[in-house]
């Protein structure tokens, strides 16, 4: 039975990630090379940088892709380190939209979304409008993503009776540092915070995970996802490497601030919704909004810290 449940778990993850990738690719291709131009033109100051990073990441559903673009612009000396910080902060806020979307109970509407996708694709074949092509694919990808999430939620009901699994989740709730480290390790290994997010939401749908454990895993996934930026910065200029380090420090400092305050933070998040899945999504959003506000107030000192940390590399 465990073997079949693991197979179903893997199948659900594949569908979830495949659907998410289809959504990302569709909107990324729809934007084409304009994303680089948009980021370059709209990052006139830190505030416009935050808004640009947020909107671009909301559209392409990938903070990692946004960060890679930022690193390439910094490497080409088109974007300064100070302006890059704004876009990175905005990207961290924008990526919370994915969690917000999957936290809603949209299963009953999936059939209608699939029908809408098919209609849009038919219209595309008749009109050859490029944007319709990617919109139709994006909606279909979202449907597949949701089907995968529902599969994950359904298979999680089996794990309710697995004693060692329940004990492990209890450990995560009582030891936030363990949840943080696990979130970092899993996300860095598979290079996808979305996969971990999908699992956490699936666990929440069947009440197998508590809010403190879900928050600690989310904090860890924010740090673990920085591995993509480091890989993109390898072999690039010092400024590009500093951008990757800046991304890491932003998330690490946020985790260091919030982890000791987790009991207070949890009580605040509990006030935002009665549904656990919504609480998890709201915690993710609040975490990144507050982090951005904190760093925004000391952005010059933060950039100076990044430069100082990497000074011996010059």
UniProtKB/TrEMBL annotation:
<feature type="transmembrane region" description="Helical">
    <location>
        <begin position="179"/>
        <end position="204"/>
    </location>
</feature>
<keyword id="KW-1003">Cell membrane</keyword>
<feature type="transmembrane region" description="Helical">
    <location>
        <begin position="109"/>
        <end position="127"/>
    </location>
</feature>
<feature type="transmembrane region" description="Helical">
    <location>
        <begin position="245"/>
        <end position="270"/>
    </location>
</feature>
<keyword id="KW-1133">Transmembrane helix</keyword>
<dbReference type="GO" id="GO:0005436">
    <property type="term" value="F:sodium:phosphate symporter activity"/>
</dbReference>
<dbReference type="GO" id="GO:0044341">
    <property type="term" value="P:sodium-dependent phosphate transport"/>
</dbReference>
<keyword id="KW-0812">Transmembrane</keyword>
<protein>
    <submittedName>
        <fullName>Na/Pi-cotransporter</fullName>
    </submittedName>
</protein>
<feature type="transmembrane region" description="Helical">
    <location>
        <begin position="46"/>
        <end position="72"/>
    </location>
</feature>
<keyword id="KW-0472">Membrane</keyword>
<dbReference type="Pfam" id="PF02690">
    <property type="entry name" value="Na_Pi_cotrans"/>
</dbReference>
<dbReference type="GO" id="GO:0005886">
    <property type="term" value="C:plasma membrane"/>
</dbReference>
<feature type="transmembrane region" description="Helical">
    <location>
        <begin position="211"/>
        <end position="233"/>
    </location>
</feature>
<dbReference type="InterPro" id="IPR004633">
    <property type="entry name" value="NaPi_cotrn-rel/YqeW-like"/>
</dbReference>
<dbReference type="InterPro" id="IPR003841">
    <property type="entry name" value="Na/Pi_transpt"/>
</dbReference>
<feature type="transmembrane region" description="Helical">
    <location>
        <begin position="139"/>
        <end position="159"/>
    </location>
</feature>
């Amino acid at each position: 039975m465990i073997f079949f449940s693991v197979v179903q778990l893997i199948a659900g993850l594949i569908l979830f990630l495949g659907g998410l990738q289809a959504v990302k690719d569709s909107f990324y291709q729809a934007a084409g090379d304009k994303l680089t131009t948009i980021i370059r033109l709209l990052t006139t100051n830190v505030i416009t940088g935050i808004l640009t990073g947020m909107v671009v990441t909301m559209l392409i559903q990938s903070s990692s892709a946004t960060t890679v673009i930022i690193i390439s612009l910094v490497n080409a000396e088109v974007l300064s380190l100070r302006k890059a910080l704004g876009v990175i902060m905005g990207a961290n806020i924008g990526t919370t939209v994915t969690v917000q979307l999957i936290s809603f109970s949209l299963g009953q509407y999936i059939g209608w979304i699939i029908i809408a996708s098919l209609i849009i694709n038919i219209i595309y074949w008749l009109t050859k409008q490029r944007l319709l092509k990617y919109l139709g694919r994006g909606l279909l990808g979202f449907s597949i993503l949701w089907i995968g999430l529902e599969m994950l939620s359904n298979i999680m009901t089996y794990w309710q009776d697995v004693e060692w699994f329940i004990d492990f989740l209890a450990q995560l709730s009582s030891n936030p540092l363990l949840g943080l480290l696990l979130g970092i390790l899993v996300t860095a290994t598979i290079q996808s915070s979305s996969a971990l997010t999908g699992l956490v939401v699936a666990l929440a749908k069947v009440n197998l995970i508590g809010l403190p454990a879900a928050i600690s895993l989310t904090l860890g996934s924010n740090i673990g996802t920085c591995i993509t930026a480091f890989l993109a910065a390898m072999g690039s200029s010092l400024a590009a490497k500093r951008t990757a380090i800046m991304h890491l420090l932003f998330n690490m400092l946020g985790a260091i601030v919030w982890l000791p305050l987790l009991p207070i933070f949890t009580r605040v998040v509990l006030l935002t919704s009665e549904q656990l899945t919504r609480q998890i999504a709201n915690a993710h959003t609040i975490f990144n909004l507050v982090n951005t506000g904190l760093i925004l107030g000391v952005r010059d000192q933060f950039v100076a810290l990044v430069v100082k940390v990497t000074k011996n590399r010059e």
